[in-house]
Amino acid sequence: MENLALIDSFSEFKDDKLIDRVTLMAILEDVFRNALKKKYGSDDNFDIIINPDKGDMEIWRRRVIVADEDLDFENEEITLSEARKIEPDFEIGEEVSEEVKLIDLGRRAILALRQNLISKIHEHDNTNLYKQFKDLIGDIYTAEVHHVRPRAVILVDDEGNEIVLPKEKQIPSDFFRKGDNVRGIIENVELKGNKPQIIMSRTSEKFLEKLFEQEIPEVFDGLINIKNVVRIPGEKAKVAVDSYDDRIDPVGACVGMKGSRIHGIVRELGNENIDVINYTTNIQLYITRALSPAKVSSIKIDEENKRAEVFLKLEEVSKAIGRGGHNIKLAGQLTGYELDVIREGNIADTEDDVELTEFSDEIEAWIIEEFAKIGLDTARSILNQDVNDLVRRTDLEEETILEVVRILKEEFED
């Protein structure tokens, strides 16, 4: 019964740590075998019988009977006279099994057993916790604020696991109080000694990507692909999206009617300004879109050095650069090109310019729209371009572009 009582006292760990009974019994056997090795030198001739249903266990030691004068290994052998105290008809060479009571191990050994058990269970918990959260790296996770410190916020999930949100992983506008629910991605799991430290991030590009998956069904279903995400946390972000289904407008689907779909994401990120753009393999068009809302006049690409000279009218330069240089910085990160802004002409040059829509009688609307996609919406903005560049940057045939150029030149010649 004393074995059973000890097991019951150990079972509190099962409830506290949510460890299953079978695992607890396996740990118990390991702990008891270590104790037997310390006391007897070996556990090879011991049988530990565990009943996980009852939570009971028995320890039996097997010894071979030898003549009284031949006793050499007390742990593995027993004298005939001692054996016959157990059963009068025992003979030399037979095996005797005796139950080992916990009291035989000594009080100090029993205290050590308990400490060893605590250590083993913590080790088991930490291993499982490390594996659990290692599999969650890159996923969105929600936890509650438990404590706010100057350099980190300590969160606790529903299972009581501690998660760290460092200051540098917080959006600058974040402000948390005890009890607040916080969303972020599990960015890393680090082992500090034997204890795993779970790191959450709200500044990672992956967090924004996962928010798109959560909030936009077409992204979750794989109908819209997120090709690239760049961020300045809390300030501005650019997300390039694409779809293999021509019937889907990826930008429209992500933004939603009057911004309804993206509004929740913006709010989660502290009103971070998010530009969603159509991805394209046409690098000139991609850079043009990435620099939105600025209208680009022309682009000169240096593919070898991954640089691009972007020509802009004076009034478009500030839009391209953006507040604090955020827009051009993110456009460069999104496209992978270092962008150099070249200011062209002066504001006076635009006074005799003509909106492209004024030529709708001679140029079809879809052609005007195609030029508008790359930021060319006036006559001079097109005439200042190289025809070959226009062929690369648009989906128009060279013949069509030459005809447009002819029409526009006639206007200014007249």
From TrEMBL:
<keyword id="KW-0805">Transcription regulation</keyword>
<dbReference type="Pfam" id="PF13184">
    <property type="entry name" value="KH_NusA_1st"/>
</dbReference>
<dbReference type="InterPro" id="IPR036555">
    <property type="entry name" value="NusA_N_sf"/>
</dbReference>
<dbReference type="GO" id="GO:0006353">
    <property type="term" value="P:DNA-templated transcription termination"/>
</dbReference>
<comment type="subunit">
    <text>Monomer. Binds directly to the core enzyme of the DNA-dependent RNA polymerase and to nascent RNA.</text>
</comment>
<dbReference type="InterPro" id="IPR058582">
    <property type="entry name" value="KH_NusA_2nd"/>
</dbReference>
<dbReference type="GO" id="GO:0003700">
    <property type="term" value="F:DNA-binding transcription factor activity"/>
</dbReference>
<feature type="domain" description="NusA-like second KH">
    <location>
        <begin position="284"/>
        <end position="345"/>
    </location>
</feature>
<feature type="domain" description="Transcription factor NusA N-terminal">
    <location>
        <begin position="6"/>
        <end position="125"/>
    </location>
</feature>
<dbReference type="Pfam" id="PF26594">
    <property type="entry name" value="KH_NusA_2nd"/>
</dbReference>
<dbReference type="GO" id="GO:0031564">
    <property type="term" value="P:transcription antitermination"/>
</dbReference>
<protein>
    <recommendedName>
        <fullName>Transcription termination/antitermination protein NusA</fullName>
    </recommendedName>
</protein>
<dbReference type="GO" id="GO:0003723">
    <property type="term" value="F:RNA binding"/>
</dbReference>
<keyword id="KW-0694">RNA-binding</keyword>
<dbReference type="InterPro" id="IPR012340">
    <property type="entry name" value="NA-bd_OB-fold"/>
</dbReference>
<feature type="domain" description="Transcription factor NusA first KH">
    <location>
        <begin position="202"/>
        <end position="279"/>
    </location>
</feature>
<comment type="function">
    <text>Participates in both transcription termination and antitermination.</text>
</comment>
<dbReference type="Pfam" id="PF08529">
    <property type="entry name" value="NusA_N"/>
</dbReference>
<dbReference type="InterPro" id="IPR010213">
    <property type="entry name" value="TF_NusA"/>
</dbReference>
<keyword id="KW-0806">Transcription termination</keyword>
<dbReference type="GO" id="GO:0005829">
    <property type="term" value="C:cytosol"/>
</dbReference>
<dbReference type="InterPro" id="IPR015946">
    <property type="entry name" value="KH_dom-like_a/b"/>
</dbReference>
<keyword id="KW-0963">Cytoplasm</keyword>
<keyword id="KW-0889">Transcription antitermination</keyword>
<keyword id="KW-0804">Transcription</keyword>
<dbReference type="InterPro" id="IPR013735">
    <property type="entry name" value="TF_NusA_N"/>
</dbReference>
<comment type="similarity">
    <text>Belongs to the NusA family.</text>
</comment>
<dbReference type="InterPro" id="IPR030842">
    <property type="entry name" value="TF_NusA_bacterial"/>
</dbReference>
<dbReference type="InterPro" id="IPR009019">
    <property type="entry name" value="KH_sf_prok-type"/>
</dbReference>
<dbReference type="InterPro" id="IPR025249">
    <property type="entry name" value="TF_NusA_KH_1st"/>
</dbReference>
